[in-house]
């Protein structure tokens, strides 16, 4: 599959496994799972046929590892980023002391005043490393880096979850637990 097709398939899967499964006539099961055969049939019925080989290639080689198969290979899901309500079945975990969130510079004043919010998604997404967070933030303009005092927030009672692809998830983050990284000042 060429790069252009790869990106189109990945975006199509993101749209329907994270945001609009009902548009394809699908319902996400507990954990966000959907049967692979049902997904492929629904894609074909909606004039966007995807082969099993293409699906496997996108799951294996997506640079953000957005999707995964269950242990049987018969079900697929998006690891996080859902705007539809779904229980991913993740267990709360203690996060590292610090996590990172990249955002566009034009969002900074609001975030420092009101904190991080999931917006239309179910969770705020956090990264283990600065480079990943900055890359995410750069998608929407000049990136700035926020340090999240995750351990302090966890000790204050907030739950954290780690998705299968290593993205840390939590609910809204109060500005008291945020710090602008020195390279962003």
Automatic annotation (TrEMBL):
<comment type="similarity">
    <text>Belongs to the KptA/TPT1 family.</text>
</comment>
<dbReference type="InterPro" id="IPR022928">
    <property type="entry name" value="RNA_2'-PTrans_KptA"/>
</dbReference>
<comment type="function">
    <text>Removes the 2'-phosphate from RNA via an intermediate in which the phosphate is ADP-ribosylated by NAD followed by a presumed transesterification to release the RNA and generate ADP-ribose 1''-2''-cyclic phosphate (APPR&gt;P). May function as an ADP-ribosylase.</text>
</comment>
<dbReference type="Pfam" id="PF01885">
    <property type="entry name" value="PTS_2-RNA"/>
</dbReference>
<dbReference type="GO" id="GO:0006388">
    <property type="term" value="P:tRNA splicing, via endonucleolytic cleavage and ligation"/>
</dbReference>
<dbReference type="GO" id="GO:0000215">
    <property type="term" value="F:tRNA 2'-phosphotransferase activity"/>
</dbReference>
<keyword id="KW-0520">NAD</keyword>
<keyword id="KW-0808">Transferase</keyword>
<dbReference type="InterPro" id="IPR042080">
    <property type="entry name" value="RNA_2'-PTrans_N"/>
</dbReference>
<dbReference type="InterPro" id="IPR042081">
    <property type="entry name" value="RNA_2'-PTrans_C"/>
</dbReference>
<dbReference type="InterPro" id="IPR002745">
    <property type="entry name" value="Ptrans_KptA/Tpt1"/>
</dbReference>
<dbReference type="GO" id="GO:0003950">
    <property type="term" value="F:NAD+ poly-ADP-ribosyltransferase activity"/>
</dbReference>
<protein>
    <recommendedName>
        <fullName>Probable RNA 2'-phosphotransferase</fullName>
        <ecNumber>2.7.1.-</ecNumber>
    </recommendedName>
</protein>
């Amino acid at each position: 599959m060429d790069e252009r097709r790869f990106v189109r398939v990945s975006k199509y899967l993101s749209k329907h496994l994270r945001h609009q499964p009902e548009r394809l006539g699908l319902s996400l099961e507990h954990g966000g799972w959907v049967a692979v055969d049902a997904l492929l049939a629904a894609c074909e019925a909606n004039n966007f046929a995807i082969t099993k080989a293409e699906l496997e290639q996108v799951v294996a080689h997506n640079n953000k590892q957005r999707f995964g198969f269950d242990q049987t290979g018969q079900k697929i899901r998006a690891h996080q980023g859902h705007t539809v309500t779904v229980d991913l079945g993740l267990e709360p975990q203690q996060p590292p002391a610090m996590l990172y969130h990249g955002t566009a510079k034009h969002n900074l004043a609001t975030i420092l005043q009101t904190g991080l919010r999931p917006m239309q998604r179910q969770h705020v997404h956090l990264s283990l490393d600065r480079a990943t967070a900055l890359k995410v933030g750069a998608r929407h303009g000049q990136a700035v880096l926020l340090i999240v005092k995750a351990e302090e927030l966890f000790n204050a009672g907030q739950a954290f979850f780690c998705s299968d692809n290593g993205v840390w998830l939590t609910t809204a983050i109060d500005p008291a637990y945020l710090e602008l990284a020195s390279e962003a000042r």
